[in-house]
Amino acid sequence: FPVTICCSSCASTSVDLASTFTIGVSGTDSNGCTADTTVSYLVYPLPAVDVNDAEVCAGESITLTATGAATYNWLSLPYSSASITYVPDSSVTVVVVGTSANGCSSNASASVIVNPIISIVIQDEVFLCIYDSCITLTATNTSQVEWMEADGSFLSTDLAIEVCPDVSTTY
Question: How far apart, in whole angstroms, are the C-alpha atoms of residue 69 and residue 110?
Fold first, then answer.
């Protein structure tokens, strides 16, 4: 019955992978008595586990998929399948341990980046006299905006726009 060895540096060894080799050992004690024994070894490479990185906005779900092994265990997460979907609370490094069919294990890590939800701030409700006033509306805390009229018609992508409404209007 061979002993199984999981080899972490198999590329640099001369041992044939997934094959049995035998080592013979003999010894002599101080009384001149000798003994011989052999041990058989079966060498397997570690699985080449890989997992994708992910980046999402806060509150969105991500899917991480691990490859290269027969079974998986996600450390610090309650999952044991190759592909998982969950909603991360914050940016984190997720580690998955993959185990091959012969029992050898290795791990891989995924970088999960959670971007905060932006908060767009514009002026509160403003009252103007019809045909008499214009106002500049400015969006802050964002680098990208689309100004639309209440009916959905597009106005601008500028962070600040000047409007001169002649009726009560929502932007």
Answer: 16
Residue 154's identity, in one-letter code, is: F
d(CA 164, CA 6): 75
Query: pTM of the prediction?
Result: 0.61
d(CA 148, CA 145): 10
Does residue 11 sit in helix, strand or coil? Answer: helix
Token pair for 155: 């106005």
Cα–Cα separations (whole angstroms), residue 102 to 44, 81, 116:
7, 18, 43
Distance of CA 62 to CAs 109, 111, 115, Å? 15, 11, 12
- Specify the 3-state DSSP secondary structure of 10: helix
Residues 64-118 pLDDT 10s? 999 999 999 999 889 999 999 999 999 999 999 999 998 899 999 999 999 988 7
